[in-house]
Amino acid sequence: MLFEKIKSDILAHNSYIIGAGGEAAVIDPRRDCQVYTNIAEAWNMKITGIFETHKNEDYVSGSRELARPTGAEILHGRREEFGFGTGVGEGEMFGLGSIELEVLETPGHTQESISLLLRDRSVSDDPLMVFTGDALFAGEVGRTDLAGEDQRREMSEMLYASLHEKILTLDDGVIVCPAHGAGSVCGGNIGDREYTTIGFEAATNRLLSLEKEEFVEYKVNERLYEPPYFAKMRELNKSGPPLIYNLPHLRAVSARDIRSLVDQGAQIVDIRSPTSFAGGHIPGSINIWRTGLPLFMGYFLNYEDPIVLVDDFNLDLDHVVRHFVRLGYDNITGYLAGGFPAWFKQGERSERTGVWSPGDLAENLDDPSVYILDVRNINHRDEKGYIRGSHHIYVGHLEEHLDEIPRDKQIVVHCDAGFKGSLAASILQKHGFRHVTNLLGGTLGWEAANYPLIRERATLAAVPGGAT
Amino acid sequence: MLFEKIKSDILAHNSYIIGAGGEAAVIDPRRDCQVYTNIAEAWNMKITGIFETHKNEDYVSGSRELARPTGAEILHGRREEFGFGTGVGEGEMFGLGSIELEVLETPGHTQESISLLLRDRSVSDDPLMVFTGDALFAGEVGRTDLAGEDQRREMSEMLYASLHEKILTLDDGVIVCPAHGAGSVCGGNIGDREYTTIGFEAATNRLLSLEKEEFVEYKVNERLYEPPYFAKMRELNKSGPPLIYNLPHLRAVSARDIRSLVDQGAQIVDIRSPTSFAGGHIPGSINIWRTGLPLFMGYFLNYEDPIVLVDDFNLDLDHVVRHFVRLGYDNITGYLAGGFPAWFKQGERSERTGVWSPGDLAENLDDPSVYILDVRNINHRDEKGYIRGSHHIYVGHLEEHLDEIPRDKQIVVHCDAGFKGSLAASILQKHGFRHVTNLLGGTLGWEAANYPLIRERATLAAVPGGAT
Amino acid sequence: MLFEKIKSDILAHNSYIIGAGGEAAVIDPRRDCQVYTNIAEAWNMKITGIFETHKNEDYVSGSRELARPTGAEILHGRREEFGFGTGVGEGEMFGLGSIELEVLETPGHTQESISLLLRDRSVSDDPLMVFTGDALFAGEVGRTDLAGEDQRREMSEMLYASLHEKILTLDDGVIVCPAHGAGSVCGGNIGDREYTTIGFEAATNRLLSLEKEEFVEYKVNERLYEPPYFAKMRELNKSGPPLIYNLPHLRAVSARDIRSLVDQGAQIVDIRSPTSFAGGHIPGSINIWRTGLPLFMGYFLNYEDPIVLVDDFNLDLDHVVRHFVRLGYDNITGYLAGGFPAWFKQGERSERTGVWSPGDLAENLDDPSVYILDVRNINHRDEKGYIRGSHHIYVGHLEEHLDEIPRDKQIVVHCDAGFKGSLAASILQKHGFRHVTNLLGGTLGWEAANYPLIRERATLAAVPGGAT
Amino acid sequence: MLFEKIKSDILAHNSYIIGAGGEAAVIDPRRDCQVYTNIAEAWNMKITGIFETHKNEDYVSGSRELARPTGAEILHGRREEFGFGTGVGEGEMFGLGSIELEVLETPGHTQESISLLLRDRSVSDDPLMVFTGDALFAGEVGRTDLAGEDQRREMSEMLYASLHEKILTLDDGVIVCPAHGAGSVCGGNIGDREYTTIGFEAATNRLLSLEKEEFVEYKVNERLYEPPYFAKMRELNKSGPPLIYNLPHLRAVSARDIRSLVDQGAQIVDIRSPTSFAGGHIPGSINIWRTGLPLFMGYFLNYEDPIVLVDDFNLDLDHVVRHFVRLGYDNITGYLAGGFPAWFKQGERSERTGVWSPGDLAENLDDPSVYILDVRNINHRDEKGYIRGSHHIYVGHLEEHLDEIPRDKQIVVHCDAGFKGSLAASILQKHGFRHVTNLLGGTLGWEAANYPLIRERATLAAVPGGAT
């Protein structure tokens, strides 16, 4: 029996390929989908089925892309019309050799969400695994806010029912395979277990132990961020996203050309680290470090203007390109040939960002000309505490709140580590703020250097994501 | 939390790397161990611990090899003296960030066998996973015959106790991570589930539902093969195997040189498919197809004489070399440059093997000059049935039973598919049998072509391995 | 200065990328063209120009494919209309930083053939290199037969003039970079020097020392083979070949499906070695070994019916696919999942081919029921000699001459090594010949085993290609 | 005929593999030598000979390393005793199939320097290529200063004789294959042609047109730098360098550990770009950007203390390690796990370097508290001009001239681009200079921004290397 989890790194999206008897199925494929056909080839299997557990909102579905070379059938929940594939409903069965997949309708995250129960009939009629999509994660449950505030309560009630009537009724020993892992924006606080089980979740996932009313109340009031690109993804994944055939090929952009590209509205994305960006960068560029791209590009980049990457040594850009393709940014266009140094070798002015170590901030904490801006997500701030005197705007919402920030002060941005702080600094500089400084190490470094954080209240909401 | 299963293909050996908080441990590492340091590097972790769940007999342990560049501590069960590492016992705890590993002594397969219980204290005190080594597999339990016939009953009783007192008392939702998967020679009939759980095994693994006496009786009478190389592995893995530092570099051997190498006792291994070997091969070579190497080289190759490989296009030999290194065949020396065609371009005589399709055998089934030799394992023959008139000698035991085979007849060997049949044919030809024919497709092809197999009795013993 | 030769293996097609000052040009790009953009990326250069030294007949031009992502201009000789690009003429100059390329019109192989003279103005006004396309090779000159018999004399005269008036007038120290290397079907007998010079060719290339009349006479009478696919290539390369965007993705074809594919006219290509094919193959398949594909597929495959590959272990098929794409076989469709053994595991009948070692043929040389068929090219037969009693039909022409071969005899085919012999055997079996045997080792093995070849006459024509 | 040039990037060391008839030889192999056996494998050749054209001083010879797995014979000039291999002299011949290599003794760079003349006897008795080691390069000739000042005149005279009596007497069409390309520290100003010829060099290499006295005078007075590691290389390459077997495996060093490593004398090498280093770095680290390592590590690193690398994302460190191994730095030990951000996440203080764009320097050119320090090589300064008021110390000599630099001023270092400037800045900071600023873009950026450079005299000495 073939069973493999394919993780799209950083995005923390899980897809699965399973198979037996020469036939395989893929659950929630990503758009750069050759990985699945390669696995099937190694196992001498044909991919005959593609399942969408729900209409994804955080990445472009690869179903159509994968159906093209394989001829596989696309299947999704029947409670919503898709522009492609076939709707399936409760209790429908699909066979792959001795393996059998049974559809469980598990609405709540979306209306048409399904889970898939896997049995290996050659072994037993007991189910072995359940693919829960965005209904149940390790230590978390699916978001119910994305259908809109007006439907949030209803979706939460449906999710409660799906969890308690469909999923938790399975045996404790059933392995749970969710569509996302830790770090995903699709769950408030997904655990970093690679695998979990019904029994382990029932015992440890505190959301599963809530009574229905508590649960719904929690879900209705949960504070979650929705990156703007989610809307685009829902639209694409409903209608059927454009086929790409292969990964785009980035053009080399010379330092001479980049200026005119910027004048034409190109989006310059500096994928280097906070200190690299701070030491010098192209004015107007924004700094989303290479491993932060899947999480933050969707807040700041549009789908029309060409995107040009800036790195120092242009290493492994092929992998970077995948992040853009997975989120539908087919306007990824080029990279600065020669890296950022090509910019300054031409005599161009390099813009800098200030950087402070914790000691620097501590010395200036009471300086009235210093404005401390915390750009972490609000749960993190509430949970972990904050630096005295700091103001808060989430980095993803910064551009909508610029007028709250004084232009005559030195703005010291910080997050929990320094990466999101540098992103925020780049946004401020792009919008004309002159004196912008990033706190290296953020609150992590601050505490490590023995400076205090203020904690006011404890909340149920946990802290998502790793420190970057 | 880092959790990754590293599978050594075909050998079906599972090793695991787990980690948290910047520290990682490897369980049962293989000898070509860079895979672990690469993963640790990608996760920014240091490997600090290496566990041996038991003194392995089917591959060379990579513990010492991995300890060299990492400085990690090697830990194994304390009930036997090893030439390296530190003994650990029941209840000892090891921390990796928030992860905790607890030692369970689970003797039965060997005296010093241990299992490791994993908890993530940042989530819960409930265990999440158990690494069971060779105590419990998916659908199978460990072998108890390898310590010798005299200890078999005692080992079986210990294993029963280990299973029922230590492992099955865990929660149903605990994920089971064994040291072997389907196809391994370390279990009679390991299931091909990639993951399983205590609950699923308790419900479906028929050996776990036996009463103690039934269980012991079954284990004492179980028919299993022990490849001769197991003895060498036990010896190496007890004393500490030699370090290799890197994979050996194969020398190109010219067609001119190969004859003198053979005269000096070199072992010529033809890694091609049955029909490739049948169409022409070097006299005296034995045919272990490239994906059968880990399973059969240990029956036929010695550890002294140089081993030279023969392929047609010499593709991906780097991977082939790994199979030899994993089994300690550091006498792997070279490959025939130019492939088998270099042999016949020199005007050398190519030896052939006969091949028959099922229809050919059916026509000659009653010919008294035809001697049909079934080389499958005995359980397979008993379970699946046999071709009328066929005699049985397991391929791995062929060289000890050559005098049972008539030299004046046409020997038609068969297995279940054709690969082991070709291996058997090559052994016979090497030992001077003149008229040797391999049945392409074996019993699988025979049945597919609608010819009958005779089944005499049903047994509890199941059929291991896939058809090759 | 960037200078790199990119060789398409086996096809022996050379393309070149050169550049300086951030700009690069590619000469005669192949269709799988990412290799050029990767090099340009590593050198921080933009590809701005693409040159076609002539309308190629042996592979699909990659000019349009490469122009798509790079935006580079395509340039070719102006004496013929192309469906794309711009015509250039004698003396036109193109700059890449300090490098200058000068067009020399050098007709003869085709009307619009050009050579390109390279100078590095930062060093000297003396030319450093000349890209001669198909005008001058190492030890050979271009073919003049492809424009048709009626134009052969005129083309030969033009080629003589191009060589002696344009190319040989360059300094002895100028490095010669031709469009093909040894083994190419584009020259009778190209030398295997990787690089050569005007001086070395002037001194050693015997065709350059001929007087005009001798030269023309030689070229008009030269015996060369024209694979049927050349016509398709000329047509595509004139009009502009279809864009592929990326390499096609092969479908896994199950053993169950392959029979119906054959019924629908699919072309089954067995890419294994002669003995592999001989030991068993799918009836109706033809045997072009994997490294012979670029040289022989163009004789036997059509551009309409789907092509399905058969190998044993399906290794490195990605590379194999490139050969098909380079020759425009976009109908390459799939591969037999599980390899040839999947065929016989289903109980299907495997067809065999006889194989003989030299001694077998020697014993039967006078048997009247044996018909010896030599399928080497005629120059090889004339030059190296033949086996007594053998008949000759070139393997590429075999299908047109089947009625010359007796159907009631045992046909023993041979070439110089065994590969083309196996190809010929497969063609005969496909056309219903029953008793077909391939001589392993061919004439090479025959001589190595000390059997005689008969030589009747010496010719000027040399022997192309290596022994396969 | 196999002919392939293997370039060790950045070091600009060329080695060659040539072969025919199943046998190959390697000329001047590097230490990470698997590249040669891989090529030989692909060509079905055995490496039987290894040539050292001279006792190399800029890298560790790979001859012994390559002889180990291949069994090939090592050959070098007989005029000096080596600790390994066999001495060969004028006129000795070595065969590889139809290829013949003839030894020419060509002293001058070293006493035992040899060149190798290649003929392909199957084609002609005319030589096709000459491997000139460090005697003749494209546009340059070998250094004669490395044997010491006292022997410089004599070595120069010998070189003149070798060039004019042995090499230039060859035919114009002979291809010249030197041991170094552009950028190497082994020649003042090697051209960037990938290939050249006797004829092209005779016509364009201005050193070849000098009379003997002029030539010797030029060579005796030529200003060249000798990195300190050359002495170590000569010693190793004479005695036979230690075998490594494989590339070393870097240990992950945690941010917690790095401080104590530094206390124990570890050498911290920050391989990031100038702006990355400027934005924040570990105090005491030196900044040799990843593509500058082969050229500058030999000036600043010792062979005893452990070397630890710092990058941002730890990309492609395997390739970086090769640079250290090639120069014999077997004390390369580890890398900072998590990259530089791991440093500041721990709350550690990050040291910064100032960076100026050209406009910043222009505004402060007359500020008496600013000390401008030009660290380019002296030829570059003389040839290209200098910034008004700047002082000069070559970066490689900086540590010996620290007392010339005022400690109470702001030191603005610059090179021609910004990389060597950042290296110099890191050296100054390591030695306690507080106010250090690097001019981004160096003189290139300065001129590009339309600020003037002062040129005082023209010299024959040309400018080596690219701008970094």
Automatic annotation (TrEMBL), chains A, B, C, D:
It comes from Methanoculleus bourgensis (strain ATCC 43281 / DSM 3045 / OCM 15 / MS2). Its EC number is 3.1.2.6. The keyword Heme does not apply. This is Hydroxyacylglutathione hydrolase. GO terms for molecular function: hydroxyacylglutathione hydrolase activity; metal ion binding; sulfur dioxygenase activity. GO terms for biological process: glutathione metabolic process; hydrogen sulfide metabolic process. Residues 262-352, 366-455 form the Rhodanese domain. CDD domains: POD-like_MBL-fold, RHOD. Keywords: Hydrolase, Metal-binding. PANTHER family: PERSULFIDE DIOXYGENASE ETHE1 (PTHR43084), PERSULFIDE DIOXYGENASE ETHE1, MITOCHONDRIAL (PTHR43084:SF1). SMART domains: Lactamase_B, RHOD. The keyword Metal-binding applies.
